[in-house]
Amino acid sequence: MIQFKAWLKNYLLTGLIVVVPITITVYIIQTLIGVMDDFLSFVPNAYHPDTLLGFHLPGLGLVLVTILVFLIGLLTHSYIGNKVVEIWDLLVGRIPLVRNIYQAIKQFTEAVCSNTGSHFKQVVMLEFPRPGLYSIGFLAGPAKGEIETRAGQPVMSIFIPCTPNPTTGYYVLIPEKDLIPLDMSVEEAFKLIVSSGLVLPNPHQHLSVKN
User: How far is CA 161 from CA 25, 171, 177, 184, in A?
Assistant: First the structure.
């Protein structure tokens, strides 16, 4: 009887490990598609895709929003688009509280998604919040100017994200000698942090890269 319970428990847990991520992923995708489809509610009924096609096509809102985001990115690269963004940032910057939230989210998004070199450069490990406890952080780059002068040694800017929401965290300045560089990628580190340590990087992948 004990062996049967152990056997049943083992296969139930194995099934949960497979089913839960699939279920949550499907739910998130369905929710995202639903939200994006709601975006089409702003389109006049005469020009609504459902009216033109004669039937409802799930996910069309997601496709249209993706195209819209692409066009906004394309427009932003132009002189006029860049000026519109600057004016928008200026207007938002005049609104108390809102500007702090907006600027924090924008800076974080730029740091993660930018291809201009301002993104996180490396994953590091450091003693934080006290000696003996280690945290995963992202190297943003060296701290120059007054900070380096006052410290009297090379100091690095590190972002330490919180779990499970990595969009919030701590910005710390750490002497370069106190950092432990890691081989894992930024994406792997984000997965590790969001999963609270449950999703570990594949060590064999890094070993094969080194070899």
Answer: 23, 9, 21, 16
